[in-house]
Amino acid sequence: xxxxxxxxxxxxxxxxxxxxxxxxxxxxxxxxxxxxxxxxxxxxxxxxxxxxxxxxxxxxxxxxxxxxxxxxxxxxxxxxxxxxxxxxxxxxxxxxxxxxxxxxxxxxxxxxxxxxxxxxxxxxxxxxxxxxxxxxxxxxxxxxxxxxxxxxxxxxxxxxxxxxxxxxxxxxxxxxxxxxxxxxxxxxxxxxxxxxxxxxxxxxxxxxxxxxxxxxxxxxxxxxxxxxxxxxxxxxxxxxxxxxxxxxxxxxxxxxxxxxxxxxxxxxxxxxxxxxxxxxxxxxxxxxxxxxxxxxxxxxxxxxxxxxxxxxxxxxxxxxxxxxxxxxxxxxxxxxxxxxxxxxxxxxxxxxxxxxxxxxxxxxxxxxxxxxxxxxxxxxxxxxxxxxxxxxxxxxxxxxxxxxxxxxxxxxxxxxxxxxxxxxxxxxxxxxxxxxxxxxxxxxxxxxxxxxxxxxxxxxxxxxxxxxxxxxxxxxxxxxxxxxxxxxxxxxxxxxxxxxxxxxxxxxxxxxxxxxxxxxxxxxxxxxxxxxxxxxxxxxxxxxxxxxxxxxxxxxxxxxxxxxxxxxxxxxxxxxxxxxxxxxxxxxxxxxxxxxxxxxxxxxxxxxxxxxxxxxxxxxxxxxxxxxxxxxxxxxxxxxxxxxxxxx
Length: 648
What we know:
Radius of gyration: 28 Å
Strand content: 15-25%
Number of domains: 2
Structural class: alpha/beta
CATH topology of the largest domain: Rossmann fold
Shape: elongated
Distance between the termini: 48 Å
CATH class of the largest domain: Alpha Beta
Number of strands: 18
Strand order of the largest sheet: 1-2-3-5-4-6-7-8-9
Number of helices: 22
Helix content: 25-40%
């Protein structure tokens, strides 16, 4: 900002969170009843970010035991599991030689170290091969698998290919990324293991360090088949995980990893931290907070902790503490030792744990780049994603009367005395977001309609000129008793310098995990103006009509749909835009998940049954996307004509 320039009123211009923002400790509500209500919100957020569509959830994993071998007293199977069409997980399944019957299951998830599934890290700082073998020796069916792109048999997609670069907006619109893919991999691996004849599906544990800790608590949060979880050196309220596979749009707008870990309660949970990383404060913060939640269930004894004075690691001492925790949680409730010594037993050499000697499995149709992975995702991900609950999670809702903020306005007696769109103003917003939406307004005659005029103003001067000297069609509407409110939506009145600075931040790494998009804020502003008209101007909501110009039409339609079925008609000229095209949504209505949730057709099915509107310049392939009660025209028309048609 220039020296001595006035600070913008809208707090949203300055709000910016990132992966190391300090989140406050959760308020668990003080009772199980209060917690369970909050729990529903947390879980809905996680399910949205994990893109758990019906088709993804219902797709059955297909597994093949490729080879098997013996290492000392342990038998190891090398398994390839197809978790979605053409996408495979390479895994190792181990158990004690001669073990019979159904065994408790242990999932061993690795973090961000290349070849971590198959390699003992230098100095033993981390070793999935050791947890694989030792849990097998302790009587478990022990399972490990590779993260996408992290071992020489698991390089179908580069790990950092998604959520960054030029395709970021496209991927986000379809809910596509490493986080949902890897979360699905974890769940499909659990599906596969639990279906085995040698698995006791009622006794499943999961452990992992660093990025493996992230996968551990998200898997346990989503899937209650996991009865005991031990995320190691990961859970923190001030570091959420720095990789694309730990982040996804809208995941941490409201909640932190501590909230998500709370979904594990009242199942057994062990937090392991160390002095040398972001888990330094685990005992007094994350562990203490989660114990308060477990106390609501009366099961504080199901929470364990382990802290060491060491750098970021999953060393032998910590592994031995986790062995003991899992023994008590899943095998013997009376087990009291705090550690089980690691066995003096060999682990398989790296080459023996590789499922294939190729980076892509030698299978027909195996995906070998991110472009093919996206094409596969588009084919399976959208099914069942256009529900009302998901659209509410995606876009929010109209604020209630108590949240409508008026910062300043022309007194009502002056608004009522004279129509003066150029001079009469109301600056509204929401108390909950400290937002600011400057509007010019002319009230309708008694019983008339108020038009919320949504336009793509490039600056405040264009809107001011429109209001000072309205176009002839708008002037005639005013003369005929229509009212008009012309809002300046988020950033529209901001200086070029402010816009550039905000948009540069918005293009930063992992932005949409922690922050809303520009278009999302503008959609919220449209709903705020609708609420303001009802609660401050006294206009019945059914008389509030939303009208949008071409560039704003998709955004305004979603806002109108989510604003409630008591809102008046919607009108817009869509300018012949391809409403199924990713570019249309990326440029005009960039809401992550919007296309995965069906776009115009999806929000129409979810929220627009029986509602009215008139839209023009709609391509023939898009006509069926609108609600049945809409008049859909192929030819272009002026907004003034559409407004009159919708209010006859």
